[in-house]
Amino acid sequence: MFRSVGFGLWLVLMVADAIHAEDAVVENVVFAIHGGIGLDKAEMTPEIDKRVRAELEQALRAGFAALNKPNAVGLDAVEAAIRLMEDSPQFNAGRGAVFTHDGRNELDASIMEGKTFKAGSVAGVTTVKNPITAARAVMEKSKHVLLVSRGAEAFAAEKGLEIVDPKYFRTEERWQQLQKQLDEEKKRGQGLRVESQETAVVPQRHLTGFSFGTVGAVALDKAGNLSAGTSTGGMSNKRWGRVGDSPIIGAGTYADNEACAVSATGHGEYFIRYSVAHDIVALMKYKGLTVNAAADEVIRKKLKMAGGEGGVICLDHKGRFYPSYNTEGMYRGCITYDGQVQVRIFEN
């Protein structure tokens, strides 16, 4: 009897996993975004669901509008949509980002295009209003790829980007999340003890409340070039200048015209260790996998087996969009060349 029940449970899980693995590939897509892996299904209310979808559609349409301007490139769409989400206090990016252990908002972002492999990123900035714009400036107006902290802020100011008081990024909800974590540490007797990095921080998904997560975008422009970008506030209660995968090219962001553009969200340490974004591209280029097969191989197999939680959005060079995630859901959406919008959270 026990063996029979065990086999039945295994079969149900295998079928459910197979169904999820068949998350539909959407054809003729020119632009797509994600807003993180967000809430568990049990925590989702109709009000939050409505707000998530509205925010995602607004960002999708902003990117699509930018993509259809004269002489536009995919980077324009990526930047426009991510800027909008950075300006929204709902997301863990820009205004509304989570707090560090020391009560700061430290922001990361990256951007890349798939024709020449040019890329730019910033990490640990606290005064740059739109980190994704700073990342693009690093790519286009410097000889570097990654600038961090005070240096990145000085560069942004020098290039005329909008600089704000660090208080601009604060929201009461995110502040209360930090206070809750600090209180829990004290209750466990950990308040005065040095912890490992991974026990000191908590993935933002588990403390999102009514807010969304890390944001990202991928685009395919009229010239056939792919672009990708990602922006985040990282993990709530992070310490010691911790930086995750979002500003790391090849981990949280990657674009290659011969394969696909990728933007990731999740537990950054795992995405860095497994070079998630680049690994998906490599599987397509060197093993000939389709975009969905490559993404699932990395996210639903390699990453899941390692204990890494998260997901990616991928857009290939033929306009096929595919999201892969090993959580209950992921906030995501896409828009086709003729303006058809699709927004999803838990549903395939």
Describe this structure in words.
The structure is a single chain. It contains ten helices and twelve strands. The relative contact order is 0.18. β9 and β10 (321-325) form a beta hairpin. The strands form two sheets. An eight-stranded mixed β-sheet has the order 4-3-2-6-5-1-11-12. α2 packs antiparallel against α3 and α3 packs antiparallel against α4. The protein has 348 residues and is an alpha+beta fold. The model is unreliable at 1-21 and 191-211 (pLDDT under 50). It has one domain (25-344): (Glycosyl)asparaginase (Glutamine Phosphoribosylpyrophosphate, subunit 1, domain 1, 4-Layer Sandwich), CATH 3.60.20.30.
Topology, pairings included?
Blueprint: H1 2-21, E1 29-34, H2 46-67, H3 74-87, E2 107-113, E3 119-125, H4 131-141, E4 146-148, H5 149-158, H6 172-187, H7 197-200, E5 215-220, E6 226-232, E7 253-255, E8 260-266, H8 268-273, H9 276-287, H10 291-306, E9 310-316, E10 321-325, E11 332-336, E12 341-344
Parallel strand pairs: 3-4
Antiparallel strand pairs: 1-5, 1-11, 2-3, 2-6, 5-6, 7-8, 8-9, 9-10, 11-12
Helix pairs in contact: 2-3, 3-4, 9-10
In short:
This protein is α+β, with helices and mostly antiparallel strands. The chain has one domain: Glutamine Phosphoribosylpyrophosphate, subunit 1, domain 1 (4-Layer Sandwich).
- CATH H-level name... which superfamily? (Glycosyl)asparaginase
CATH architecture grouping: 4-Layer Sandwich
CATH class, named Alpha Beta
**Arrangement of strands in the largest sheet:** 4-3-2-6-5-1-11-12
Spatial separation of the terminal alpha carbons: 34 Å
Q: Taking Cα atoms only, what radius of gyration do you get, to the nearest Å? A: 19 Å
Tell me the count of domains: 1
The percentage of residues in β strands lies in 15-25%
N-to-C series of helices and strands: HEHHEEHEHHHEEEEHHHEEEE
> What's the mean pLDDT score?
89
Tally of strands: 12
Gross morphology: globular
CATH topology: Glutamine Phosphoribosylpyrophosphate, subunit 1, domain 1
Structural class: alpha+beta
State the helical fraction: 25-40%
Which blocks of ≥5 consecutive residues have pLDDT under 50? 1-21, 191-211
